[in-house]
Amino acid sequence: MTAPALARLAALLADDTRAAFCLALLDGRAWTAGELAARAGVAPATATGHLHKLVAAGLLSEQRQGRHRYVRLAGPQVAHLIEDLAAHLPPAPAPARTLRAATASAALARGRTCYDHLAGSLGVAVTDALERTGRLSRDAGFALTPAGVRWLDGLAPVRASRRPLVRSCLDWTERREHLAGAAGASVCAYLIGQGWVARVGTGRAVRVTPAGGPALTELFGTDAAWSA
Amino acid sequence: MTAPALARLAALLADDTRAAFCLALLDGRAWTAGELAARAGVAPATATGHLHKLVAAGLLSEQRQGRHRYVRLAGPQVAHLIEDLAAHLPPAPAPARTLRAATASAALARGRTCYDHLAGSLGVAVTDALERTGRLSRDAGFALTPAGVRWLDGLAPVRASRRPLVRSCLDWTERREHLAGAAGASVCAYLIGQGWVARVGTGRAVRVTPAGGPALTELFGTDAAWSA
DNA sequence: CGCACGATTCGGCGCGTACCGAAGTGTCAC
DNA sequence: GTGACACTTCGGTACGCGCCGAATCGTGCG
User: Fold this and answer.
1) What CATH class is the domain B3-74?
2) CA-CA distance, B189 to B183, in Å (whole number)?
3) Could you say which of A5, A47, A58, B59 would form a disulfide bridge with A37 (CB–CB 3.0 to 4.6 Å)?
C-alpha cells in the first residue's frame, strides 16, 4: 500500500527491545510486562511504552489480571509475519558464546514451537515423515493429500475457521519448510497432549519424550531417529 | 533469531523513503537512483544514502551503466518479503484524494504485477479460474493438481530451480491468495508475451487487452468477465 | 490498615539518523 | 575541450525516539 503505512508497520519491529519482545512471545504464551522487560534487559518503564505501541498497532493483545498485565501475540497471522521476517535474515550467524547458550540454542534448533506448531529439526522431520508416508505433497505446492486429510481427521479433528488448514512456515535453523496453519497446530497439540513431545524448561524448546520415540515411529510408519 | 538482527532488517523498511523505494521496485524492473528519488520526493543525495543501505543489506542489487545506477530487488524472496509485510497492514485505508489518484489506484486494484506474477483482482481471477477448472486446489494447502502441472508444462515449461514452483501470495487489495512462485511468474510472462495482458503506463498496473478477453475465456474454459 | 510489588506516567537526557545544499567525480554529447 | 547531467561525498542541522530515575496509581498480602 502506501509507503508510510508500510514504514510504520516495519518500525514496530525495528527496535531491539520490541523485536526481543516479539521473539519471546513467539512461544504463543502470555507474558507479563515485567517478564518481557527482564528478558529484554530494559527498565519496566521502557517496556510499558513499547507494549503500548505494539498493542495499539494490533500486533499484541493484552489482558489485565489484577496488578499484572498479560500480553500475547494477537494471532497466528502476527506470528507468521514475524517468523517470515526472521526467515529472511542473513544465513547462519552468531555462534554461541557460552556453553549454556550453546546447549540452549542447540535445544531450540532440535525442536521448538513456532507459536502453535512444531519447528526446528523436529518440525522438519515430522513434515518429512508426512511426505514420505504420502500424507503431504510439496511437488506442486505445499498441501495435504486426500490421505493426509483423512489421517488428520482421525487424529484430531480441526474445527473449521477462516484460518487456512495448511500453510508452510520457513524455518530459520533448518532453512526448510515445515507444516504450519491449523493442521500444524493440531498435530503439535496432539503430540504434546499425548505426552510424546514435551516442553523443555520455560522457553520455546521442546523434545521428544522417551515414550514419544516409539509412538512417533508407529504413527508415521518410519524409523527416523526421533529421540535425537 | 537474535533480536538485533531482526530489528536491523525491519529498520531497513521502517523509513518512509526506503519503503517508497521498495514499493516502487515491486514492479520487478530496474530503476535509476534519480527516478526513485523523484518518486519518493527526496533529494538525490538522500536517495544515495538509502540505496547504499539497501544494497549493503542485500535487499537490492545494483548495476552501473555509464553515469546511471540501476537498482532492482535482489530476487523473488525480497519481493515476497515486502508483499508479505504489506499484506499485514491495517485492512483497507486511504481513500483516494484526487480523480487522478482514484483512477490510478483503481487500475492497480484491477490488475498489477507483483514482482513477476499477476496480482489484484486479475491475479485472483486467474487463480480462481485455475481452481474452477481443476488445475489448482486450495482445499488442503495451495498446490497445482497433476492436471495443472501438465497444463503448465504445455503452456510454458518452467525451468527447474531452487525456487518453489508454487506459492501463494496474499493480495493487499483483494485480501485473497493468488498464484505466485515460479508457476505464477511463468503464467504472467506467458500472458504478457501473448499480448493478452499488457502493462498500463509506466507503473505496475496491467490490463486485459481486447484480444485477451476471448483468449483467456478459451484458455481457462470459463466465461468470466475478463475485460472488466 | 499498611506494606510490597507490578505497572504506569512524567521529565529530561542523549544518540541515531533523515534531510539538504554545496562541492566534487565520472560519463556522455557536441 | 567544454558543458550538461547523473550520481556521490561531505558537513551541518534538526527531529524523533529509546532510555532511565523518580514519583504515582492500583492491587494483593499479611
Assistant:
1) mainly alpha
2) 10
3) A47
